[in-house]
Every structure is written in C-alpha cells, then in structure tokens.
Amino acid sequence: MADSRGKFVSFEGNEGCGKSTQIALLTDRLRTTGRDVIALREPGGTGLGEALRDILKTPKEGVEIDPVSELLLMNASRAQLVRQVIEPELARGSIVLVDRFFDSTVVYQGYGRGLDLALVRKTIEVAVGVTIPDLTLLLKVPLHVSESRRASRAQTSGPERDRFEEAERAFFERIERGYDAIADESSGRVKVIDATRDIDAVHRAIWSEVSGCLQ
Length: 215
Ligand code: TMP
Description:
Blueprint: E1 7-12, H1 19-32, E2 37-41, H2 47-57, H3 67-91, E3 95-99, H4 102-112, H5 117-128, E4 135-140, H6 143-157, H7 169-185, E5 190-194, H8 199-214
Parallel strand pairs: 1-3, 1-4, 2-3, 4-5
Helix pairs in contact: 1-8, 2-3, 3-5, 4-5, 4-7
The protein binds thymidine-5'-phosphate.
C-alpha cells in the first residue's frame, strides 16, 4: 500500500463524547491489520501546535484571546499540522486519525463564538487547502450526558477547567446545534455515531464506517 495515498479520518463531538478512548481503540485495531496508523490531535500534533494548544486551552492571567484571534490560532496550528505531518503521512500511505479538525472550528468559533461562518470557512481554506478528511465520525451524546461526563471527570482529575469548559451552557447548546447542521450539510463525509452506548458498541459502529472507507 506504500505507493498509494492513505486515508484521513477525523473525529468530532462535544466534550465527554469519548473521542480519545475510541481513537485509541481504533488505532490499536488498525495496527493489527498491518497498516501504518498515526493518531493526532487538534489543536496540537506538532511543536508549534502543542505550544498553541497550551495558549488556547489553559487560562493565563493577563492573556485575553479575542474570538478572531482564536480562529487564527486554531488555523495556524492546523496549517502546520497539515503541511508537517498529515500530507507527508498520507503521501506515504498511512491512515491518519485526527481528534478534531476543521468542523470543530466551524462549530466552536462559528456557532459557539458567533463569528461569521463565511469568514470562518475562508480562514479554514487557507489552512487546509485541499486536505479534507475522507471520513468524519461525529460522536454524538446529548448535552446533559456531556455535562455529567465532564462533572465525573472533574471529580477524578480535579476541578480545573480549560478556557472552553469555562463557557456558559448556551455556548454548548450552540455547539450541539452546529454539529447537527454539519451532519445535515455534509452527510456524505460526516457519519453520526450514537456515543451514548457502551464503549464496545461505539467501537463496533466506528469500525463498520472505517472499514467501509478503507475498501
Ligand atoms: P479537546 O482536545 O479536549 O477536545 O480540547 C480542544 C478544545 O478546543 C475543545 O474545547 C474544542 C476547542 N477547539 C476549537 O474551539 N476550535 C478548533 O478548531 C479546535 C480544533 C478545537
């Protein structure tokens, strides 16, 4: 397979939807088939991206981030990830899994922060060019499930919240609406997975979509 282009799969969903667990399970299973797999996250995945991730996620005294700055920083991380890692890996035939990609920007900066969607899409285009996922898995849990999973996570890992988790409930309601809109508009690329089920059932649903995409 080394001489054919790889596959690009992104994962989306609100906080506590179980993306990280599912990406780890899928990575292991794909590796058992002998494929080269790389799992990445956004913002992050490169030296620059991880530095931007810290700025974007960790609240810092005296550091304000305007929504337009947030949009540009997310896409600076993405531009670097696409050029430094995603495109070279796809060119060598790898399966590239990314925890969030441009749909997160449409949903969080567009629907969530209220930036003009045309501006958001134009900025994304600069960052990604023609590098678009072959498949996007949208792990869907209702807002109250996301909230209770976040609350139980806070009990084990401490009460500190990142800059996004600090947002009010209305923000997360807009995120939910944004993801529904994307699932409707891009139903060819975006597959909705009911992530309220147990981990194995969600993994089976994901595997069925991914193995279809790999054929
Ligand atoms: P996570 O890795 O825990 O999902 O955290 C990433 C946070 O960044 C999450 O709250 C969603 C947010 N985000 C955006 O607002 N825009 C983006 O483009 C991306 C990739 C993430």
